[in-house]
Amino acid sequence: MTRHSLSLLLRNEPGALARIVVLFSSRGVDVESLSLAPAERGDLSRLDVVVELQPGRTIVQLIKQLGRVVDVKSVVDRTHDEAIELGA
Amino acid sequence: MDTTGAGALIKALEDVGCEVIFGMPGGAILPAYDPLFDSKIRHVLVRHEQGAGHAAQGYAQATGRVGVCMATSGPGATNLVTPLADAYMDSVPIVAITGQVARSVIGTDAFQEADIRSITLPITKHSFQVHDPADIPRVIAEAFLLASTGRPGPVLVDLPKDVLATATTYTPPKLATPSRPVLSPVQIRNAAQLIGSSKRPVFYIGGGVIRSGAAQELHKLAEKTGIPVVTTLMARGAFPDSHPLHLGMPGMHGTVPAVAALQRADLLIALGTRFDDRVTGLLPEFAPHAAVIHADIDPAEISKNRKADVGIVGDCRDVMAALSAVITRKTDLTDWWNYLGGLRATYPLGYDWPADGMLAPQYVIERLSRLAGPEAIYTAGVGQHQMWAAQYVKYERPGSFINSGGAGTMGFAVPAAMGAQAGAPDRTVWAIDGDGCFQMTNQELATCAAEGIPIKVAIINNGNLGMVRQWQTLFYEGRYSNTRLGTHQRHPDFVKLADALGCVGLRCDSQSEVDGTILEAMAVHDRPVVVDFVVGQDAQVWPMVAAGTGNDEVMAARGIRPLFDEEE
Ligand SMILES: Cc1ncc(C[n+]2csc(CCOP(=O)(O)OP(=O)(O)O)c2C)c(N)n1
Ligand SMILES: [Mg+2]
């Protein structure tokens, strides 16, 4: 298992969050924590999530799968940022 | 224009070019059926919504356009689940329109309420639930665009009944022009370099080549390079079977030379394909010596199952055109072709006649292919007959073989043929079906008879769930638990059933009658025809890579492992 921290911008459309959560469960991604908050732009929300991947699955693959969800504006891998924060 | 949500729905469907809807009315979707009554859009009233969904898939694959199906809320909508899953797996562009209970009662377990959006989340590319009738034209246009662009797939539009009934003003949807990914010139150059320096390259062609309409580009590129081509189950027809560069289908039931080409290659040029386990066999043992160029419109497919050395995100047509433009010379592939040509000569597709004197199913399909020809459209169910349809029909053009690859949905053949025939009325459409599969969806033959959709069905009646029986023979010591159907004992009598459904029913159980029966079926134009081909129950699909083994263990026939044996 590897641990990753992702930050997504979602369109505020009904079902957008559900689609992300279902993607995690159907692709066997473990969710450790998840938080949703309004983004600066009113029509977007920011989803911060920490996930654990099964052996053999890559974060790049997950990011691409998230990227094809129509209501996802962007996905950023923050795993590294967090490591720095923790280390500080 | 003043109208209602329902009126806007039908007008919008007309404006985006929808010509046929497969569906069934019911309470929640009823408002939509009223303006549909006056529309130029044809509605085909199915007997089961699953049939509507698969018909939309068949229509889409025969025409290259978006297929549309429609159902009411609750059970109508849930009956679409299987076709949506199927379309998702095989990247088929369909739009499913479902009625929903009124906005005020959503979430109250109202009569015929099912949260179809949530149910279908993992099996739709996208979905909408419309709450303002003014949004309907935009949503329909978006649904069509999403279904048909990028990696195609199913899109669901859920419409609460009161939204359909509410007055609104129709504003024609703006039809966006689809954009295609811009190719990376660096990756194209890297790919061309790999191709130029490889000694044992192979084009590993998937269904994406058919979806992108790239068969011509493939033809050009293959002839320019002289590189062997294999076409997966979803790509049969993307490259002519008669072409000398074509080695046939790879995978679990692929030809020995096609499997060998992948296993012994030093370069896979994978186009619009997703390294499905039915092609790769045991992944760590797949194509062990090959570098990989992988081009796909969906970035998430690249390096998903097998790491690509060069990944190209793009439409297959653009990718092949770009490669053709930069590749200038043919590399010398003599040794490679000598090896593959040897395998092709030693291990052609072949079959034995059943010991009990019954018909060989492969022979029936071979003759069907010969007599109906490459201009016909063939659909298949799932099982042995599907694999024989992939192996023994000779395909020469894209869109001529329509089957359920990723999901493997039994019952696909008849409704898919209905949809294909509705979209291509001038072509002969043959559903090659199993006696098990046929019993899942044959009710749509009543639809075909009533609607004047004269499909032809060849039931490969082996009396059994043949594919499962084959596995029981090979892996369960011949313990035939629950695979006998009783269809050889006429439970049911397919000829009588055909007759009852308003079709012509024929039966054939001997070699000498096969051609005559097929020709008799082909002479019928005013009604659907069902032919009950009674064949032996012990015929098996070969070659075979047993599930869970590596492709090197491909067996040309039981116990014969050409690649395994050549190692030492
Ligand atoms: C809906 C569904 N249920 C079960 C299966 C599992 N299955 C795969 S092939 C097969 C047998 C199909 O029998 P038949 O239609 O007679 O085809 P045959 O293999 O005999 O040619 C079964 C049960 C499936 N693929 N789809
Ligand atoms: Mg059977």
Task: Give a nutshell description of this structure.
Chain A has 88 residues and is α+β, with helices and mostly antiparallel strands. Chain A has helices at 16-26, 59-67, 79-87, and strands at residues 2-11, 30-38, 44-53, 72-77.
CATH topology of the largest domain in chain B: Rossmann fold
Bulk shape of chain B: globular
Identify the CATH class of the largest domain in chain B: Alpha Beta
> Could you tell me the strand content of chain A as a percent range?
35-45%
Spatial separation of the terminal alpha carbons of chain B: 77 Å
Strand neighbour order, sheet with most strands of chain A: 2-3-1-4
Secondary structure tally: strands of chain A: 4
Portion of residues within helices of chain A: 25-40%
Continuous helix count of chain A = 3
User: What are the secondary-structure elements of chain A, in order, as H or E?
Assistant: EHEEHEH
For the largest beta-sheet of chain A, the strand count, sense and barrel status come to: 4 strands, antiparallel
Domain Thiamine pyrophosphate enzyme TPP-binding (chain B): 381-533
Protein name (chain B): Acetolactate synthase
EC number (chain B): 2.2.1.6
Cofactor (chain B): Mg(2+); thiamine diphosphate
